[in-house]
Amino acid sequence: DTGVSQDPRHKITKRGQNVTFRCDPISEHNRLYWYRQTLGQGPEFLTYFQNEAQLEKSRLLSDRFSAERPKGSFSTLEIQRTEQGDSAMYLCASSSNLDRVRYEQFFGPGTRLTVL
Amino acid sequence: GQQLNQSPQSMFIQEGEDVSMNCTSSSIFNTWLWYKQEPGEGPVLLIALYKAGELTSNGRLTAQFGITRKDSFLNISASIPSDVGIYFCAGRPGGSEKLVFGKGTKLTVNP
To answer: What is the pLDDT at residue B79?
Structure first.
């Protein structure tokens, strides 16, 4: 399988705990994105990396959220001191900028977070 | 912030019927994309549009990038039961790499 993979697929945690999600992009893609999706809504952009550099962050990414892509390959998204409002599907996507015209983001299956 | 207005919110159709849905915005977008999402899964890319006026097909799906760059539509011809899902439009604003998504159109196809 050469698509975007995410781990875990589901996470249940108690309020106040820290959680970390992992995303492995399509192997030749140098761009990686995190989105959050709540029930009945479209995905909302959180942040984006080109290689290991974090180039864009949304105001949705509060100081409890941190994302890393240390070697320009996989990425992690950590949420500290989780709140019930953090319950959502966290989606990762990847793309390549080698073609300056085409622009297509491919999504992984998501991590469903439930904060009790 | 930028918002996409996607309509209709839901559609209930009979197998074999054609479907049309659209997305509008008050802002200009440089790229329009259409995705389909099924329960518990991530969005799957259907069609990408890069130039104003562009009309692109993918099998029974046809999408167009509006001339004003503020809208796009998706048509599905001769619907089948496996077309069931939520269809999202997404636009990429100039100067950004993020995608802005609509709220989705939920499609139900009755056999």
So the answer is: 97
